[in-house]
Specification:
Distance between the termini of chain B: 29 Å
Function (chain B): Part of the binding-protein-dependent transport system for D-xylose. Probably responsible for the translocation of the substrate across the membrane.
Shape of chain A: globular
GO cellular component, one term (chain B): plasma membrane
Helix content of chain A: 25-40%
CATH class of the largest domain in chain A: Alpha Beta
Number of domains of chain A: 4
Number of helices of chain B: 17
Structural class of chain B: mainly alpha
Largest sheet of chain A: 6 strands, mixed
Oligomer: heterodimer
CATH class of chain B: Mainly Alpha
InterPro entries (chain B): ABC_transp_permease
CATH topology of the largest domain in chain A: Rossmann fold
GO molecular function (chain B): transmembrane transporter activity
Subcellular location (chain B): Cell membrane
Strand content of chain A: 25-35%
Amino acid sequence: MARLLEMRGISKVFPGVRALDHVDLTVEAGEIHAICGENGAGKSTLMKVLSGVYPHGSYEGEILYDGATLANRGIRDSEEKGIIIIHQELALVPLLSIAENLFLGNEVAKNGIINWPSAFQQTEALLKKVGLSEPPTTQVGKLGVGKQQLIEIAKALAKDVRLLILDEPTAALQENDSQKLLDLMLELKAQGVTQIIISHKLNEIGRVADRITILRDGATVSTLDKADISEERIIRDMVGRDMAHRYPERDSNPGEVLMEVSGWNVWHPEQQGRQMIRDAGFTVRKGEIVGIAGLMGAGRTELAMSIFGHAYGRDISGTVKMGGKVVDTSSVTRAIAAGLAYVTEDRKQLGLVLDEPIVKNITLANLAGVATRGVLSRGREQQVAEEYRRAMSIRTPSVFQKVVNLSGGNQQKVVLSKWLFADPQVLILDEPTRGIDVGAKFEIYTIMNELAAQGRGVVMISSEMPELLGMCDRIYVMNEGRIAGELSKAEASQERIMSLILKNDGKARVA
Amino acid sequence: MADQAAGTGGKGIGAHLGGHLRENGMILALVAIVIFFTVVVRVQLGVDFLSAQNITNLFLQNSYVIIMALGMLLVIVAGHIDLSIGSVVGFTGAVAAVLTVNMGWPVYAVIPACLLVGLCIGAAQGYWVAYWRIPSFIVTLAGMLVFRGLTLWLLAGQNVGPFPKSFQSLSTGFIPDAFGVGKPNMTALALVALAAVAILWMGLRARARDQQFGITPEPVAVFAIRNFVVAAALLFVGYKLATFRGLPNVVVVLSVLTVLYAFFTENTTTGRRIYALGGNEKAARLSGINTERLTFFAFCNMGVLASLAGMIVAARLNSSTPKAGVGFELDVIAAVFIGGASMTGGSGKIIGVVVGALIMGVMNNGMSILGIGIDYQQVIKGLVLLAAVIFDVYNKNK
């Protein structure tokens, strides 16, 4: 087989993070090549380098494509060469028709005037190739996610694709839609289209992939041939690293049950009939740090936000008990009153008012705490801010600094301060160390330990398994909206967590 | 703490002025515009731009803009817009005319009734914006058409008037002189002097409090100059008003409202929450803030202030006309943006808005006195608005 693509020694550095470190990847012409790795292993970054999202010169290393050096200035360059990427979030315009979407930016036109008869004709031919029979004038937004995914592939075919990259194509799909998509991949392979698939689902990889490359911490670990692919081997290669970071010591001494969630069901806020959380339940004890593991899209954030004031989803059912009593958490105000706090994973969009100073952000969730009958005391407010600045060691020249000017770690401390000032019994921390440097991570861990020592309950949602293993007394593993398992500190290991995530995939639904 | 003080001490007055360019710059711009017109009017026409009568006129002509700008600031800070207020002005004026002239209601009943009408209008629009998430631009554009139409219907296309003296005094009345009739009007002078002292005292108190909590205060020179300018302007205007007919009722209403809204926006939890809502609605909601209710409140408040403005306009014209208030929304919105509010919500100050409205008012008045055609006036006002916002954006990006 001829070699279609060779990426050699690719390195990509973001401020403070080395996302890719001398990654090698070779793809033979006509094969389906799978790429596996944990969240943050560098899969998507690698694909962005390949597809020109990060142009030539912004990374180190060399890409050989079809025997020549590839120097993309942008996505258009790579698309011209037949390299087409389908992102996890579909890039379709929901209000336009199928035909309009298929040829978006690539219209069937002469001198800027679209030849609709020809466009419709070509659309029908392309739809046939991907096994769809919808009229070309159908609005894309009216199709299901599965069909939209197929439209994306048809769109790639319209551009004479030679190397098709699919980034977790089945993550949002139902079982039979997934099967259809995998069938289509095999059909395209028979027609000579080389494909790269990023996936976590081992049964899918086993079905379609000819070879598999495993990434970990931004580096290539191994490339396996079909014959060598086994679940154990993949899991070991995906997680096989030492505890890279250190975690502060803590005497764990959990007390009585503080919070108990049971029978929690949540439906997607927009898509009809899509259940995001299925019969989930968990408990948090006093002074305990509980972890929630799972891959992106497993429903961890949805679980947390639906509990916290029903801030996500609809048709929510289930009970939340605090200290044995059922509490109402149906609005954020009520959830706060019940003793909950939720530190969002997206602190810039959901956690902070970026253009406001630190002091105003810290008091936002508990303005009553610095006011008398609705009138604010600026002095008290400032005292509070100074206290947290000291306690959290927020590094800033003044508490009147706008939070937009702070580093990620210091912003996170401001969000934590905000919630601590509201004095919750249970804090749910969603990816509390995402995007912050190692030193600040340690500080956040220390703060978490202090919170537990004060007798609060801490729930930590994280995609970094070492962090969960290093910090938590117990770990719940989530998968496809369910709690797939619970591991005590003694039982928990990266392998156990990964296998709970992977083995459950797809199978539980059939059962 | 010590090195912090040393650090900011080294920053100096220039750096401080740069940091507060917006607030101080607005006041300077207003002063510059007033001086410009004083000189040009003197040279060209040989009359006094700052005559007692013209100053009185300035306030009477622009009171409604300032009053509505106070409410519009809240709406814009919350991240919305209200285009209907011109029509609401016309409509509440019409309601006042029908109640007073046609039905003979007394003033003390008409005023609360009209304010209630304004509240209902604000609530009706705010409901769709807040709870149904219909863009405020659409809802209030609809409101603009609906209430203009209702104004025409209510007045049957006619002017209705005149109003009784008691109603007219809403706009054209003056605070009577408690010390007997005379010039200058001593009541006016005393009130204005009191206001100047109060401003100075509050400034000093704020400084003392800042120092107590370790906030670095602004340099003494800046504080002194700013307060001197403000107090001098206040006393000068007060003296001029006193030598004419005294303090207009409208100026008193205006001042009280300005102080109330400044306090509300800066010192109350509700005020703070509106800024948070405009700054980042999702973060505000996840912090337990009832963002819908606040949006609803902002529109209700706007409705009430628009109805107050509507009555003042009707009282000033001494009749309600179907055309009253046409285009007012644009003056008000322009004043708010000149005053430094952000289009995306979350920022803007009451004092800035008042100064912004005064800048527009002084320019209107000055250009009219100079006999500049309405055509050029529009062009100049448009350019001033654009320049003020460009200045803001430029400063922010720098």
